[in-house]
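Moderator note: this is an archived Q&A kept for reference. The question asked for a predicted structure of one protein chain; the sequence and the answer are reproduced below.
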Amino acid sequence: MQGRSRYVDALKGYAILMVVLGHSLQRASTLGLVAVPAAVGNYPPFSGWVTMPLFFAISGFLCFGRVKAPRWKWVYRKAKMLLVPWAAWTVVYYFLTRDPLWPNSMPFTRYLSTQMVSPSLWYFVMLFEIYACVALCLTIGEWSLPILGIALVLFWSPAAMPVQYYWWFLSGWYAARLSAQVLRFKWVLWGLSVSAYTVLLALNLPAPSLRYQPVMAVGAIGLATLVVWLMRGSALMKPLAVMGQRSLEIYAGRFLFVQFAFFHSYLNVVLTTVLAVAGSLVIGRVLSANRITNTVFLGSRDRPTKPTASST
């Protein structure tokens, strides 16, 4: 893949927007401050049950063909990009936030030990673990990728690394490998996935229903890819692409804004989401201006490059 794809960036932007909206609603409902309309069911598009699989699938799609030898150097770069910001933002949140979603009432050393086991910014750690697994498998051979997935299902503790995210990552990986076939049958795949999502949403299944969660996630991924594809060429693509290129810093910085959102309606939660995204982007731009803060909080990320106009 040459350069950046505006479509993929916009899809990441859509995903991070839904993540921030979901966390805004989560916090507001935890504090009893928001009245969610009846039309918003247990499986809305911004639910973590369906949004995070999209993120891991996109990561797998972008990872295909880019794991270059020597692979340990590639893993090292991923560690700088993900684990260093995770540690830095974890410390920041302990001292700056006073939110029920963050366990900052405990002593600092105990707090750090809990974050090693069950990190609040878990996506950074989870994605790095998957990158390390992929690098190890590719050293053996690509055939070992699904074998490792089966082994994780049988022997790995879900608390250490929920296996489903590894499989969502692989779904994106193989979608990239089979991109010609996926594009050829995209309308059939979109039709099936959106139909499944609509039916399960209409059934109003309870959120803990793990039996139907994978199907719901597939449907949500299909819906998201279709919505962004239909918006290609519109004015919305540019802001979505910008958010997608900076999705990690939005993910890291969102709670600095969400925690102060004492709003009492669904409409105001949407406004909170917009402010959190914009504020995180501003903070990211400030942090990227200095080499040290760029390394510590953003993983030495470069400023966005101009994406191509590809819609697929």
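Archived answer notes: The CA atoms of residues 34 and 264 lie 5 Å apart.
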